[in-house]
Amino acid sequence: MYIKKGEVFKLPKIKAVVFDLGGVLVDHTVSGVLSIFTEMFSLNKAELVKFFKEKEDYQMRGIINDIDILEAAETHFGITIDSKRHIWPMIYDQVFRMRLNMFKLLEELMAQDYSLGLLSNIDVAAVKYLRHNMPLAFDELVFSCDVGSVKPERQIYEMMLCKLQVFPEHAVMIDDRIENIEGAEAIGMQGILYTDFVQLKNDLENHLEITLSSE
Predict the structure, then answer these.
(1) Residue 71 and residue 111 in one domain
(2) Global confidence as pTM
(3) How far apart are the first and last CA of the chain?
(4) Phi, psi of 25, deg, nearest 5
(5) Residue 85: which domain range?
(6) How many Å apart are CA 127 and CA 146, to the nearest integer?
(7) Distance CA 108, CA 24 (A)
(8) In the chain, pLDDT over 70 holds for what percent of residues?
(9) Phi-psi region of 177 (alpha: psi -120 to 50; beta: other; left: phi over 0)
(10) Do 204 and 106 share a structural domain?
(11) Is the pLDDT of residue 165 over 70?
């Protein structure tokens, strides 16, 4: 696009705001999950971290589910895990912490008629928990374990844009990982790297050209 001397370049008008989950709307949960597992089954934390890391991509893509990962842990560590269908909700009850100021921000954006999307790299167990225990007041949800694609792959962003029915330049992605912001920007979306609430609010106001009252 050619800009004449003296003209001010303006970003396309935003119609949709897409949020990441962990590290943005809720506190990070991975370290908490690992700590609980370590304590419950008297495991070496470094070995547990390695185990989950090796399985992470399969979990995020939905190739293995919440029961599969527990059965794999039983085999790998030589342990017995009772009540497999209840262990994940019990753990997530302890580690999931909603950031209330972020949910107030969602309500404010919704009231101003922005389309809202939730786009998360997430496993089956966490999705089950979220659907029953958190207010998912979004126009569209795209979870990696449901679609078999993960950020920063372009397919998962395209799925969200298709659901929201907006062009990339009319959507902004909010994420706490730079590689996921770069993935969004690579297909033409605008991006905001989340560091804290005040920074996000200021950046959103600049992108949307509005004033937000949430604190």
Answers:
(1) no
(2) 0.91
(3) 37
(4) -90, -30
(5) 30-95
(6) 9
(7) 16
(8) 94
(9) beta
(10) yes
(11) yes
Summarize the chain as % helix, strand, coil (round to 5): 55, 10, 35
Task: Collect all residues with Cβ–Cβ distance below 8 Å to 213 and sequence separation of at least 6.
Answer: 108
Counted domains in the chain:
2
Q: What is the pLDDT of residue 45?
A: 92
Q: Classify 44 as helix, strand or coil.
A: coil
**Burial category of 195 from C-beta neighbours within 10 Å (exposed 0-12, middle 13-18, buried 19 and up):** exposed
Q: What is the pLDDT of residue 2?
A: 39
Spatial separation of the C-alpha atoms in residues 85 and 125, rounded to whole Å: 9
- Reported as a single tens digit per residue, the pLDDT across 27-80 is 877 888 999 999 999 999 999 999 999 999 999 999 999 999 999 999 999 999
Which tokens hold the place of 53?
């890391």
Close Cβ partners of 55 (under 8 Å, ≥ 6 residues apart): 64, 69, 72
Q: Is residue 214 part of a domain?
A: no
Q: Does residue 133 fall inside a structural domain?
A: yes
Q: Which H helix or E strand runs over 142? A: strand 140-143
Structure tokens belonging to residue 107 = 């309500």
* 155 and 194 co-located in one domain: yes
Of residues 93, 63, 158, the one with CA closest to residue 119: 158
Q: How far is it, in rounded angstroms, from Cα 189 to Cα 23?
A: 20
Task: State whether 129 and 144 are in the same domain.
Answer: yes
- For residue 19 the two structure tokens come to 């949020």
* Distance from C-alpha of 146 to C-alpha of 20, rounded to nearest angstrom: 15
